[in-house]
Amino acid sequence: MTEIEPDNTVDARGAACPGPLMDLIGAIRGAESGDVVRLLSDSEGSLTDVPEWAEEAGNELLAVEELDDHNAFYVEKA
Amino acid sequence: MTERIVIVGGGTGGSVLANDLADRLEPELDAGDVEVTLINDGPDHVYKPVWLYVPFGQREPADGRRALDELVDDAVDLRIDRVSEIDTDSRRLRFDGGGAPMEYDHLVLATGSTLEPEQIPGLVEGGHDYYSESGATALREELLEFTEGEIVLSVIGTPHMCPAAPLEFVFMVDDWFRERGLREDVEVTYTYPIQRVHGNPHIAEWARPIMEERNINVETFFNAESVDPDAETITSMEGTELDYDLLVSIPPHGGVDLIEEAGLGDGGWVDVDKHTLEAEAEAAENVYALGDTADTGVPNAGSVAHYQAGVVGQRLASEIRGRPATATYDGKTLCFIETGMDSASFVEFDYENPPSPAPPSEKLHWSKLAYNESYWLTARGLL
User: Fold this and answer.
1) CB contact set of B206 (below 8 Å; sequence gap of 6+)
2) Bridge-partner residues for B221, per DSSP?
3) Which residues of A lie inside 8 Å of B (Cβ-Cβ)?
4) How confident is the model over A34-55, as pLDDT tens digits?
5) Which of B39, B287, B294, B315 is the most buried (most CB within 10 A)?
6) pLDDT at B381
7) Residue in chain B lying closest to A31 (CA)
8) With a cut of 0.90, is the ipTM above it?
């Protein structure tokens, strides 16, 4: 378990690609600089498109936590 | 005891369902055992795909409008009113105008999408769209006079209505200026929020080479953050700034507030079982959602609402007759995609089978136009 405390959690489990990434982008859009958003996704595509987008947008992917049936992505808004 | 079915929303999903039920439950309606009410906040049914052609001067907004009372079977009670509250505990709807509340035994929510351009600073002032009647007619004024400069088509909100329409617009713009000998003086740029040009990877893979061939510039990972109408620039969250002379956007979309207020789902979309289309909120019994309103993950498209209406119609009829409801929605989606002013592709897919776009042809273009004309048979529940 990571010890990062998110400011907001987006539960996109069950959503097909690109739903989880769009939910994350929506949450980051409404966040303040320095806020950490946790995205829960069970879509395989998130493992590639979330890191790609975070890098492109200059936000930091702090951690990816592998859980039983989904992954948790911690993204800090730049 | 009369069973009351109430449908909220007179778009494609709500109208097709109302007419489906009028046919399917004819004996029960005649006997007074069932009542079907369709509620809409205006007197007209609007067929939105017509708007794609308005900016090119090919159709009029009126071509996509018909009075609901002409489309919907007389066995259906039509109420023109705006629902202000859904109370799933007491199974009751309240109305904006203060009219008498309405009780239901079975509720179907088909309230659709609304545009929220105000979410992006400067977009209302600086952008145009073809996702509304007023937007399409205002864009027509600009596009018909446009002879040189930069056109930017920016997909801002997803999910949005008709996911193929942004691709169709840039393909049509490219061809339209080319046919008129003006293409060399017009730059066309398409922006999309994720790393490819369409949400569906199969459609994205098909479209990207066509865009390259046609000199349509592409900016991916572009999530509009603000528009500066004076400087005529649009800036993304990713830090890219684009100049434009004409900005056409797919604005952010939202559902209606009363769905979230009723605890049925976030953002105005109802959390549903994607096969039965029943609302998942525990407190909400006998509530279905369909079309854009149902959060199934499939495109927000008329064909989806049409097919889902058939499923909900069958399920409701089974429930009314005390039989197990077995009809389910398999994700079926069907879409013509214009690839120019006189060619189109076609896709058909479902939850299990991905789309494989057909080679563009003039025949498919005419099929799309022919369907747009025969849509009124669909709305009547006949096709």
Assistant:
1) B345, B357
2) none
3) 14-19, 21-22, 25, 28-29, 49, 52-53, 56-58
4) 999 999 999 999 999 999 999 9
5) B294
6) 87
7) B237
8) yes
